[in-house]
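User: Okay, second chain of the day. Same drill as before: sequence in, structure tokens out.
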Amino acid sequence: MQVSAQELCEMLEGTLEGDPDVLVSKAAKIEEGDTGSITFLANPIYERFAYTTKASVMLVDRSFEPKQPVAPTLIRVDDVYGSISFLLDKFSAQLSFKNPGIHPSAVIDPSAKVAGSATIGPGVIIAADAIIGEDAILLAQVYVGKDAAVGARTLLHPGVRVAHECRVGADCIIHSNVVIGGDGFGFKRNDDGSYDKVPQVGNAIVGNDVEIGANTSVDRATMGSTIIHDGVKLDSLIQIAHNVEVGENTVIAAQTGIAGSTRIGKNCLIGGQVGIVGHITIADGTKIQAQSGITRAIKKEGLAFHGSPAFAYNDFMRSHVVFKQLPDLSKTVHDLQKQVEALQQQLDDQK
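Assistant: Same drill. Structure tokens below.
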């Protein structure tokens, strides 16, 4: 797809400066832009690249004032990030996996219900009584287990596993090698130190408009359901344990682990490498900084936390300032102690 700068400007309701007829067919980072690409400048840190980029078109804020000549055609907009997001969505439409039909190498149980508009790629396995919705796309080597369901317009990238009796809603994007419905980590310790497995007989439910990054695991419940509610966005390499519930529109970054039976509220923002213990509740709107450890429930909504074990973000930052000064404070205390001892000796000598 090629589009002119003028057409882009009209789409974005912007103001154009430069050649309105220049064509672009792809998006690029500002430092890597070349002929035929559109880039953007939103962070002043990258302004130096605005004067060297080879991109054909550049999105900038309406207030941008160049300090040097700029080669690309400029499109001035109110919201640079929002505009580039809109255009990336347009350009990504070129990358369509939709190809309705069933690949000859797919294995589909006769009792499964697969919508005629679905795309079933090579090596896909769909087990008995599974349901695949309208316009769903299952790419190579996806597995959908017995009695499982995949909703309308959901895209499962290569290697995704949706285990038996699990549910994935509509309009989801599940990236490669995600496992939905693997067994929860349940074992009973015996007196001799050995372990017996506790059967995991529940399922995992993923709501609508959910995106899950590559190699993330959403374990099935011991009993009942592990639930990822509508609008949740999970990064790659996340562990969601059995019976966890993640509230609507919560976002979780990579390498976070959530232990069993914990309930995460709505609209939470959880950074990378966060660890959360089991059987607690995290209130709606909670913000947890990267590498924090959450060891107890968070009951008040909208608070931010940092540290391990985590405590209130502002308290953490103040404490961190003191922590960095501990060597100097230790020396000061030591010197004061010596002065006190000297004064005490003087007092003793005067007696």
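The helical segments are 5-12, 47-50, 80-92, 313-324, 326-350.

User: Thanks, on to the next one.
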